[in-house]
Amino acid sequence: MTKTALIALILVSINSYSEEKTTLLDDLTGKHTCNINFNEKFAFSSSYSDGWFNVYKTHNNVYSIVEPYQYQETISHLIIGQNKALLFDTGIGLKSIKPIIKKITNLPIIVVNSHTHFDHVGGNWEFSDVRAIDTSYTKANMNGFEHKRIAQDFTANSFCIEPPKNTDLTNIYTKKWKASSYIKNGDIIDLGNRKIEILHVPGHTPDALALLDKEQRLLFTGDTYYDAELWLYVPETNLEDYQNSIERLVEIESEVDYIFGAHRTVRVDSGVLIKIKQALLKLRSTEYVFDKNDDGKQLFITIDGIDFVTALPVIEGKQGDTSKGGSGYDTW
Predict the structure, then answer these.
(1) What sign does the dihedral 149-124-91-267 (CA atoms) show?
(2) pLDDT digits over 285-295, tens only?
């Protein structure tokens, strides 16, 4: 989930334990407003962009493909080697992403998903080489998501321009897809003079992955970290796992120069993950006080400048049945 105008967020800054508060917000909505200034410092490619996908060259043979006109502001990253290219996520699926990829490279494409929420697997069905982590959660999500599970993300207010041509907002769904093979933590994908390491970083979802390009000093974090409020609300989220994953990434943060998230801003400088770790420690502190009547409702919290969207069951360590999968919008 990203920081946008669709949800009117009320974030209460928490800079000391004596001032800790939370704000509960339900169903306050406004229209998504176009703001692509977050990425204006990066090289925009007009020849690859098409009016829906904005493409930026963000590092050596790395292209970040943004969907800024729908409020998720989802980002897919294309990492190009000598012999193959890796596409990290395939967008929300409103418009085919494959023609954009073909403009950028004619190399064989390997798809890896940062996780399998609907807004990251929308174009998976377009590709034959999709490598997934082997979890029951992932396999359930391969069946796609019917309209009712993701409909709230596709109202007229979700867009700041007209949706892609022939989009039927009353019948949007995520198509089924399948894995061509399975990957695991520590696997190396050799793209040809470029090796990408798979990091399993569960927490946001059971199948959350990050990618490490050691030679180029790049870390791709998906929804484990992105430059907006961190969505740790849904039943498949496990806060203990998330904290462990953040701590793992903090251990290698000094070895990378840039971090590539999956929403809003295509790239940030390293050094932010230690701040997430410190904010999480406060979020999970036994001194934290919540209204027990808020069980299952969204809590919008800011701690030392880090924004979280979470829920009391998540903070209490509860988790839903992950074998059923999760769209990213399923609730407690």
Answers:
(1) positive
(2) 856 556 555 66
Read off the amino acid at residue 66.
V
Distance of alpha carbon 187 from alpha carbon 199, whole angstroms: 8
Which whole-number Å values give the CA distances from 130 to 111, 121, 201, 265, 305, in the listed order?
A: 5, 10, 19, 25, 36
Contact yes or no for 283/98 (Cβ under 8 A): no
Q: Band the pLDDT of 178: cuts 50, 70, 90.
A: very high
CA distance 46 to 37: 16
Rounded Cα–Cα distance for residues 31 and 18 (Å): 35
Scan for tokens 């290219």, then name that residue: 85
| Measured distance between the N- and C-terminal CA atoms of the chain, rounded to whole angstroms | 17
For residue 320 the two structure tokens come to: 């839903």
The Cα 71–Cα 278 span in angstroms is 28
Ordered by where they begin, the domains of the chain are 12-324 (3.60.15.10)
pTM of the model: 0.91
80 with 64: CB under 8 angstroms? no
Locate all alpha helices (DSSP H) within the chain, ordered by sequence.
Answer: 98-104, 136-141, 147-150, 239-252, 273-283, 312-315
Q: Does the pLDDT value for residue 97 go beyond 90?
A: yes
Q: Give the whole-angstrom CA distance, residue 144 versus residue 286.
A: 38
Helix (H, G, I), strand (E, B) or coil at 157: helix
Contact 176, 125 (CB under 8 A): yes
| Distance from C-alpha of 180 to C-alpha of 273, rounded to nearest angstrom | 32
- Spell out the residues 6+ positions from residue 177 whose beta carbon is closer than 8 angstroms to its own: 121, 124, 125, 130, 142, 144
User: pLDDT tens digits, residue range 214-261?
Assistant: 999 999 999 999 999 999 999 999 999 999 999 999 999 999 999 999
Helix (H, G, I), strand (E, B) or coil at 121: coil
DSSP 254-290: GG-SEEEESBS-S-EES--HHHHHHHHHHHT-TT---
